[in-house]
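FAQ: What does the model actually see?

It sees only this:
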Amino acid sequence: MIAEGLSAAASVLDIVSSVSKMAQSKDQGDRAEAAEIVEALRSIYFVPRGTLDIIQAVAEGAPFDPGEAKKAFENFEHADRKVFLAIEKLDFERLAKKKEVFSLRASRELELIGWKKIQLRQKVRAFLLNVFDQKADQADAARLHQSLTDLNTKIEELEESLQRSTR
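And it is asked to produce this:
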């Protein structure tokens, strides 16, 4: 467990270091790319309202407005293109080409964040369809909510560190 924590911390530091180098580069393209990575992280964040609220309500066994659930699902579906464009910015091959800036670990970690977002979006979509069919399970909702919260926490930590280091 300690080794996992150290590895995760090293990954965050690697990513922050890499993006900071780009943000402080004399090359305008590098600076723009650093800003794109920060924006990509912000774009793949699961916002506290909407689908996350519905999942939390089901996890807690609390009532929710079916109209709000429908609206949250529509907004979720509408965001697909924006999310996938953001995830493209975190592609391993793209990042690893900048070997003078991005370590393999940093490239891999950013890509894994993107893949985790894709996996969770698929789970959220399936879960919300179960909500509409009144087949949603409270325990499944709790596990999904925890996974979403974990990903959001990682994105928050990265984004905050990147914002501090690129000023």
